[in-house]
Every structure is written in C-alpha cells, then in structure tokens.
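User: Just a sanity check before I run the rest of the batch. Below are the structure tokens for the first item. I only need the designed sequence back.
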C-alpha cells in the first residue's frame, strides 16, 4: 500500500512515503540515527507520531517500517522489500 524511500541529502536522512492507492504522501527530514553495526534504526517524528525504519546492513533490501501513535502504541509494523523494476 505504501512506497517508502530513505535518502541522505544535505547531511540529513529523509523519509518519503506515498500511498499507492490514494496518492497521499509524507515527507519527514532530520532522522535520529540509532542502532548498532548489526541493526540500523532511523527515527522521525511528525506531531504525536513516531516513524521508525530499521534494517540490517547485511540485508539492505529489506526494511522494517513501524509507526507509533502519541501513546507509544504501535499502529503499523511492516516489512518492505526493495523494488528493482
């Protein structure tokens, strides 16, 4: 349902999401970077919502996208796979 891309531009990570059904989109900039050498985690906030993307450097074609509401409850948890058209 969503296409997500992560880009590094002007010394900051950005999250771009597009709903493939509705065309709605979301752009978030300035991620907090966390994790370790085995698992990278980027986190963005948008109002009360927190968006988190995690992946393993050994398998960069698969990312986990999680979204948390203002109470910290997970409302989305999906694995996304790299598209090579």
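Assistant: Here's the designed sequence for the first item:
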């Amino acid at each position: 349902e969503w296409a997500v891309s992560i880009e590094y531009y002007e010394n900051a990570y950005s999250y771009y999401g597009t709903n493939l059904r509705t065309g709605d989109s979301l752009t978030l900039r300035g991620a907090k970077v966390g994790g370790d050498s085995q698992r990278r985690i980027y986190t963005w906030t948008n109002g009360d919502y927190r968006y988190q993307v995690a992946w393993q450097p050994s398998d960069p074609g698969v990312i986990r996208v999680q979204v948390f509401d203002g109470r910290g409850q997970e409302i989305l948890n999906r694995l996304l796979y790299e598209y090579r058209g």
